[in-house]
Design goal:
Helix content: 10-25%
CATH architecture: 2-Layer Sandwich
GO molecular function, one term: iron-sulfur cluster binding
Number of domains: 1
Bound molecules: iron/sulfur cluster
CATH topology: Alpha-Beta Plaits
Strand content: 15-25%
Organism: Desulfococcus multivorans DSM 2059
Keywords: Iron, Iron-sulfur, Metal-binding
Number of strands: 4
Low-confidence stretches: none
Protein name: 4Fe-4S ferredoxin iron-sulfur binding domain-containing protein
Number of helices: 3
Radius of gyration: 12 Å
Domain 4Fe-4S ferredoxin-type: 48-77
Length: 79
């Protein structure tokens, strides 16, 4: 695991994200538990898409590895 620049962070692609597909039994987003920094949360409850507190994202990309639907993408800010 490498921690990258604060200028890169993870973001949810809400067109792809579907907790009913990736976690049909529990509705718990696997990427939430994968994020050891606890910056992804299902604020609206289970079976709802999570959100990422991007200011606190460490850019470790563990969430991307954990999402089976490729619904988490890397965003870059600045140049
Ligand atoms: S971000 Fe990925 S793992 Fe999490 S609920 Fe959406 S599709 Fe599932
Ligand atoms: S890149 Fe790492 S710190 Fe950022 S949301 Fe994903 S798992 Fe959490």
């Amino acid at each position: 695991m490498s921690v990258q620049s604060k200028k890169s962070f993870a973001a949810i692609d809400y067109q792809r994200c579907d907790p009913k597909t990736c976690a049909p039994d529990t509705g718990l987003c696997p990427a939430v538990s994968a994020c050891t920094h606890k910056v992804i949360k299902q604020l609206d409850g289970v079976f709802e898409s999570p959100m990422i507190f991007q200011d606190m994202c460490m850019g470790c990309w563990d969430c991307i590895a954990a999402c089976p639907l490729n619904a988490i993408v890397v965003k870059h800010v600045g140049t």
